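FAQ
Q: What does a multi-component entry look like?
A: The components come first, one per line:
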Amino acid sequence: MALILGLESSCDETAAALVTSDRRILAHRLAGQEAAHRPYGGVVPEIAARAHVEMLSPLIAAALADAGVTLADVDAVAATAGPGLIGGVMVGLVTGKALAHAAGKPLIAVNHLEGHALSPRLSDPDLEFPYLLLLVSGGHCQLLLVEGVARYRRLATTIDDAAGEAFDKTAKVLGLGFPGGPAVEVAAALGHAIVPLPRPLKGSPEPHFSFAGLKSAVVRAHDAKTWAVEDIAASFQAAVVDCLIDRTVRALGQAGKVTALVVAGGVAANTAVRTALSGLASAHGLRFVAPPLWLCTDNAAMIGWAGAERFAAGLTDPLDVAARPRWPL
Ligand code: KG4
Ligand code: ZN
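Then the predicted structure of the entire assembly, as tokens:
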């Protein structure tokens, strides 16, 4: 049994967690920065980096205390090394390097997307490779064939905006505030999907996603002043769900035999998205796996777990490993 300290700081959540290789989350601490970014309607990289500097050390100390362990008990330190806002990534990675060096423990540089991709295996011990993963977050919208640890085949990605980005921009246009995804979901629950909106790339022979045209259509529907905000939100959410399902059906046809249909990333916290994917999985006779909501949005338990999986596979990194703003899986 290995004990891993996980650190996350790639966007606007600062987080530290202690996770074991037998799937016990001994501690997970998280500090969001919504209030600091809200006046700007989006994440401001410089503000985020400074907040990570302030928050990370106290969160690590608190997580170690929660778990009743010290750094000497940890087998490896796993830190997000990208992709993300480079200032924040550097704060977490440099902290991870310092702790690993001071404690004489290996460092594991985790790709944030791998954290999301493997997180369903933390919450579901029965999830075996290979599985088809819909990874939907603020920065990414991808379909990945997860064949094993460090073995990912990208079947589709977005040609413009990520799904979460579309939720965030829609929330901004509709005046629903920040962070956008949960606000759109709440508004959508009060409305009806009666506004005609496009489904970009639906039915297309190419595998990819596109959401930019949908966002522009939301702007036009809002400017027309004939629709209630709740109805636009409900129609937008329905259009996103349709696109996600259409592209996932196509990928299922390409993926070969898989053990499950899996969703992860912040947008996987959306109930309409989860419900539609669950229905799709059962229509294909597949298991549907979605991590609990708190494990879908950014956190350090998923980084600790990806660290545990990599550690078990003998994958550790040198202390001069670089932080990477862009890092495709
Ligand atoms: O994975 P995540 O926490 O951070 C990134 O790695 O990007 O994802 C954040 C994204 C944001 O765009 C946020 O608006 C979206 O996930 N999100 C949601 C919901 N909760 C978070 N989108 C739709 N419905 C939600 N309930
Ligand atoms: Zn994320």
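Q: Is there any commentary attached?
A: Sometimes. For this entry: The chain has eleven helices and ten strands.
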